[in-house]
């Protein structure tokens, strides 16, 4: 029997499954409403090694949807708040923290720093998202990319499909269009919703950190995206046969 806190997980996936998850090394980029939940679901599953990346601090407007966001954490680094929580879940987790917004120029260095089994793209800005996807694809590292959770309210419309099969998502459309210029048309797993976005909830921004606009967001939709991304990775790792 493995550690007591993983007892229920082991009943489901057996000791071999626990070992596969403990031997996995994952990269989670972005710790907002999607990434913070994805990272927590991974930690609670018993993942052995993880790198988390985000250069942002908790803002009071994050409280409606982001796991690290509380009134007591406003102004604190998201990476620090999330890392403290993940290590409280699993003190033996080998955790690397990168407290920065990953600019496109840094993608290759970070992705090449370790042998990652899977990358979770939880970035909500197009340019760095594209750089992460392209770098992962060129290095032949599996990646699941989360598209737009904003402006949507129906959990039943969320799904995981190849990038070529996404629709009714403006972020996915933009990403598809720009990936096409790189001769990448398929082969990337995406979490997206086919619900039509509520255009009245759109707000323009100053363009800081590559972000020009955002949609209004519910408390639950980003978490569902994070859940789907984590499930995609965990199920892949469990199906993976040993070399």
TrEMBL record:
Source domain of life is: Bacteria
Domain THIF-type NAD/FAD binding fold per the UniProt entry, residue ranges: 12-240
Which InterPro entries does this UniProt record tie to the protein?
ThiF/MoeB/HesA, ThiF_NAD_FAD-bd, Ubiquitin-activating_enz
One Pfam family recorded for the sequence:
ThiF
Give the matching CDD domains.
YgdL_like
Signal peptide: which range, if any? none
Q: What is this protein called?
A: tRNA threonylcarbamoyladenosine dehydratase
According to its UniProt entry, this protein's organism is Kaistella yananensis
